[in-house]
Structure to design on (95 residues):
């Protein structure tokens, strides 16, 4: 469960960076930030940032990234809910 929570935190940071890029779409000479999710340890994914090196925000890339982020959060929440249900079932069996 902690891996799911850490993953949600990492993709939340990714969404923040993407939103920053979109917010600056009309800013002259803006250099967008690229974000990558790296697996620091098996239980601790994290978002890393670097300048993309290109000028201007590619809205198509940012929007598709945001769809991926939304799906990732949804899948992690579903996994957490499943684990909670399993623990509840085990506790009911013990009682």
């Amino acid at each position: 469960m902690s891996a799911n929570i850490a993953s949600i935190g990492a993709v939340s940071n990714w969404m923040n960076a993407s939103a920053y890029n979109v917010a600056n779409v009309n800013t002259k000479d803006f250099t967008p930030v690229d974000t990558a999710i790296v697996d620091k340890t098996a239980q601790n994914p994290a978002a890393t940032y670097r300048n993309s090196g290109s000028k201007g925000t590619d809205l198509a890339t940012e929007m598709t990234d945001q769809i991926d982020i939304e799906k990732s959060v949804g899948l992690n929440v579903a996994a957490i809910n499943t684990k909670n249900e399993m623990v509840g079932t085990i506790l009911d069996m013990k009682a």
Remarks:
- The mean pLDDT is 88.
- The CA atoms of residues 15 and 35 lie 9 Å apart.
